[in-house]
Amino acid sequence: MSACDAPVLIEGETGTGKELAARAIHYQSARQNGPFIPVNCGAIPDSLIESELFGHRKGAFTDAKENQPGLVTLAEGGSLFLDEVDALSTKGQVTLLRFLQDQEFRPLGARQVEHGNVRILAASNASLPLLAERGAFRSDLLYRLRILCLELAPLRERRGDLEPLSAWFLDACHQRFGLGVKSLHPDSLAWMNQYHWPGNIRELENLLYREYLLSEGPVMRVEAPKGMRLAAPDPVDAPSDDLSFHRAKARAVEAFERNYLTRLLDLAGGNVSLAARLAGKERRSLGKLLKKHGLGRAPRPKAFSRDGLISA
User: Fold this and answer.
1) Alpha carbons 155 and 194: distance in angstroms, whole number
2) Torsion of CA 156, 161, 165, 166, to 10 degrees
3) Which CATH class is domain 156-292?
4) Does 238 have pLDDT greater than 60?
C-alpha cells in the first residue's frame, strides 16, 4: 500500500489503531517528506465542508476577511487522512467525490480551478459497503475510496498481541513518567487474554497508563472489571475430554509459560537480563524457565520500535 499512490480505506472497530495505520502508510511511502493532515469528518459542519476542504478567498462570505487555505492545500504533496468518513453528509460525500475524480477544486470565492496533489487515506468504524447497500453512503464514492482496503482486526481476535502491546505501553510509561520498570502479574495477563476489549487497543493503553501511575511495586496486579465480558474461548486450547484435571492444568500452564516467555524475549531483543526486569523476576529464576522450554539461545529482534510501529 505504501509503494503506490492510490486511495486507501482503513476499516476497523473504534480503538484498533486506524490513524496509526494511516500514518504508517504515509511515512513509508514516497510522500513521507510531505505533510500528513488528519481531519475528523464528523466534526465538520455541513455548511462548511467546502470551505474546510478547499479554502476560501477574502470576501467569499460575511466572515471571510482574508484568504484561507483548505485542508487539501495544507496536505499538498502529502496525505489527507479522512477519519470517520462515514459521518460525511450527502453534500459532503458529493463534494469529496467531485475532488477524487480529477483532484481539481475551486476555493469558495475563487474564479480559477486549482489542482491538488494529495493522497487520500480514509477510515471508518462502520462497514461502508453495508451503508452503501442501505443508501446511507454513495456507492460511487465507496468505489473511489476503496481501491485499496485494509481491515484491522479487533484486539480480542489478535491472539498473542496483548503481551507485547502491554509491555510496549508500560515501557512508554516508564520513559514518560519515570516511575520505574513495571510488568503485569501473570494472573492479570490471564484475564486480560480472555477479555472482550470493546475499546480495543485504546482501552488497553488507557488501562495500563492508569494502573502504572497507581501501582507501587514493580509487578502490577490489575483487577478484572466487574461483570466483564469474556471473549469466546478458542476450541484449540480447550482441554480434551480424556484429560484429568491435573493433566489439563499442567498443559495449560506449560502453554502459557512458553507463549509468555517467547513474547518476553521478543520484546527484550533476546536480552535475558532485560527480560527478567520486564517480567519482575530474578535473572537466574527466569533462566531456569527459559532452559525448561528450550528458549533464549538466540537473540530475537524487538517487536515494537519507539514510534509504536512494528519493526521489520
Assistant:
1) 11
2) 70
3) mainly alpha
4) no
SS3 191: helix
d(CA 303, CA 312): 8
Write down the pTM of the prediction.
Answer: 0.69
Can you give the residue ranges of every domain in the chain?
Answer: 8-152, 156-292
The amino acid at 87: A
Within 13 A of 129's CA, how many CA atoms are on the CB side? Answer: 7
Radius of gyration of the chain (CA): 24
- In the chain, DSSP assigns E strands to 8-11, 36-40, 55-56, 68-69, 79-83, 104-105, 114-115, 119-124, 148-151, 183-184, 219-220
> Do 122 and 100 meet the contact criterion of CB atoms below 8 Å apart?
no
DSSP state, residue 87: G
CA diameter of the chain: 81
pLDDT digits (tens, 9 = 90+) for 151-210: 999 999 988 899 999 999 999 999 999 999 999 999 999 999 989 999 999 999 999 999
**CATH class for domain 8-152?**
alpha beta
115 forms beta bridges with 104
